[in-house]
């Protein structure tokens, strides 16, 4: 006798039939109710952060601001994070001074449909959203191990930078880069700005 198991796969799922005798147990996660009002919670975090001034107090009207977001290969709710971040910024900074950069790493640039799916149509159509371009970088120095460090020109030239990116450990294995920690626990996200 077989047991049918459904696995998440991309935006959908796939099913597999496994002999029941080969299954010891099936582990699942417990449902945890989310926040009643995510946008309000994010806005409150930006207005009353721990250990630094509110976001709107960190920028001035002439600042060039860069917001770094992850591409579509990692789970991050930027479509929910960005609207309150951008609203707080626009209390002081004109929209034309705000650039959203998709941090691609070694991945391919996103097309417009992928950007809309990632960030939402309103953001893509009303803000300057660009893919990181490896040909538009500035050399800023060398690490203690001799690795040259090049940073995106727009990031270097910005007066203020925000990152919503959740970093994960990466392991290089015979020329391939692999995540050493696979987790989609969104509770670990935080904002970084300076």
UniProtKB/TrEMBL annotation:
Organism: marine sediment metagenome
UniProt GO molecular function: lactate racemase activity
Taxonomic path: unclassified sequences, metagenomes, ecological metagenomes
Domain LarA-like N-terminal: 9-164
Pfam families reported for this sequence: Lar_N (PF09861)
Gene3D superfamilies the UniProt entry points to: 3.40.50.11440
Name of protein: LarA-like N-terminal domain-containing protein
InterPro entries: LarA-like (IPR048068), LarA-like_N (IPR018657)
